[in-house]
Write a sequence for this structure.
């Protein structure tokens, strides 16, 4: 480890520093004038003008916020579970419809992700079908078992995302499984073939 | 009685006579110390041994109906055993300059590599792959066989489908993926690591370097982390069920799993370990 020693202070400088006063009061310059100006601009409530407008107390604000949250959450859940009820958005509060739009965007994103992966997988599966008869039976068995496990995982992940499209972790896990599927198919299509 | 003895004798000899006849192989070629060697074996077993001589020696046996080719120059040599099924069965030992770059494909053959330090790229469809050495760069794949690596490459990619992966060593940049194969790590990643399975369980016994990132994603596999006491990392676990250093969490199966964040050690090193599983269970402990 490297350590750094401070340079020794010259004696003359040390003496000069020691001679300096330890505390210096701030100069009494314009502060009284500033204070007077602030005081003159202060707003004073007029007598007899009724109650001063108050913000709702903290408990009420919490209750209101909780109600809005429940409304939004319920609407999202309902929308997620019952896809056949698009009219719900029309009768919801603006914030709810905004949230629903987000949920729909997420659901669309999930569908797009799945469609893109499915299209790519379908192409690779087509190539594999043509090569399958020239792969060894042991390899075909491994491929079939693996693809079954992958497709089952995709179905389960998609079912969860139908109900909870906002789950980034599930979307990432689905993405991981799809990548595994494409990689497996690509590797299977690169395997050496037996002579026909 | 005599006839019965003859029948028994014929039965005993039958397996011997049905075995394909074999050819002996003994070929030698010159190859630069850091040259390239590519080799393909359809079935059987091939063992590659790194040595400190600038030449290649291929010895062993192949079935009589298969054909053996090898050729090339000082900078690169290519060889193969061609044939079908049992007829292409080979049992070969290949000595290769230790620092050579090695590319091996085994159709259904078991591949074993020892003592190499050059870059390795080897795979087998349904055979096993076993590697022990000091290669700085290892890419190894098999579909149904097991994959075992003992070594500490800077760069590593290991893949199987149903086969298990067993890695002992440390590496800067590692990626391991299986579908249903179990993954076991003894050592760990120092900078960046990614382990992915679909249903395979993962056991990670090792640490993570300062500022490193380890990500483990599995759809249905269980994940067991055994972290050294000296580990400094932020642990982010997304799982239905977890037990992180005795802190248990149980969620609703079938729903999006929830996340738990736990600081391990001082976490001042800025390392991150992320584990995500939909159906699996995650445990973390220090021995």
């Amino acid at each position: 480890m490297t350590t750094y020693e401070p340079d020794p202070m010259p004696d003359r400088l040390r003496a000069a520093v020691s001679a300096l006063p330890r505390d210096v009061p701030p100069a009494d310059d314009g502060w009284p004038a500033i204070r007077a100006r602030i005081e003159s601009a202060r707003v004073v409530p007029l007598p007899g003008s009724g109650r001063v407008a108050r913000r709702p107390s903290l408990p009420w604000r919490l209750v209101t916020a909780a109600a809005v949250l429940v409304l939004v959450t319920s609407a999202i859940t309902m929308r997620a579970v019952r896809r056949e009820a698009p009219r719900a958005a029309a009768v919801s509060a603006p914030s709810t419809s905004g949230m629903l739009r987000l949920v729909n965007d997420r659901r669309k994103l999930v569908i797009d992700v799945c469609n893109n992966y499915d299209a790519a997988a379908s192409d690779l599966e087509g190539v594999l079908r043509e090569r399958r008869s020239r792969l060894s039976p042991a390899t075909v068995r491994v491929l079939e078992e693996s693809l079954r496990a992958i497709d089952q995982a995709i179905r389960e992940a998609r079912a969860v995302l139908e109900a909870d499209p906002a789950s980034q972790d599930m979307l990432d896990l689905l993405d991981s499984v799809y990548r595994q599927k494409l990689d497996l198919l690509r590797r299977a299509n690169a395997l050496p073939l037996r002579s026909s | 009685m005599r006839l019965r003895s003859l029948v028994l004798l014929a039965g005993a000899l039958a397996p011997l006579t049905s075995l394909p006849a074999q050819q002996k192989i003994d070929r030698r070629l010159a190859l630069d110390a850091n040259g390239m060697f590519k080799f393909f074996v359809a079935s059987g077993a091939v063992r590659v041994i790194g040595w400190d001589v600038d030449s290649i020696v291929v010895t062993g046996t192949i079935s009589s109906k298969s054909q053996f080719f090898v050729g090339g120059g000082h900078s690169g040599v290519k060889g193969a055993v061609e044939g079908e099924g049992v007829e292409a069965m080979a049992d070969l030992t290949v000595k290769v300059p230790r620092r050579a770059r090695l590319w091996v494909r085994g159709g259904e053959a078991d591949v074993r590599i020892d003592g190499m330090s050059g870059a390795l790229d080897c795979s087998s469809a349904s055979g096993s792959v076993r590697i022990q050495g000091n290669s700085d760069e290892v890419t190894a794949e098999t579909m149904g066989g097991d994959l075992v690596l003992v070594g500490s490459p800077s760069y590593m990619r290991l893949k199987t489908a149903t086969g298990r992966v067993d890695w002992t060593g440390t590496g800067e940049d590692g990626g391991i993926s299986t579908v249903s194969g179990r993954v076991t790590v003894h050592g760990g990643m120092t900078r960046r690591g990614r382990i992915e399975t679909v249903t395979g369980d993962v056991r990670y016994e090792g640490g993570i370097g300062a500022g490193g990132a380890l990500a483990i994603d599995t759809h249905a596999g269980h994940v067991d982390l055994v972290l050294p006491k000296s580990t400094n990392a932020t642990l982010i676990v997304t799982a239905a069920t977890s037990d992180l250093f005795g802190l248990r969490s149980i969620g609703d199966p079938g729903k999006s799993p929830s996340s738990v964040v736990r600081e391990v050690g001082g976490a001042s090193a800025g390392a991150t370990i992320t584990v995500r599983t939909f159906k699996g269970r995650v445990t973390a402990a220090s021995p």
Chain B touches chain A at residues 40, 42, 84-85, 105, 107-108, 125-126, 141, 143-144, 159, 161-162, 177, 179-180, 196, 198-199, 217, 219-220, 238, 254-257, 259, 276-279 (CB under 8 Å). The CA atoms of residues 24 and 61 of chain B lie 5 Å apart. DSSP finds one helix and 25 strands in chain B. Chain B has two domains: 19-115, 146-287.
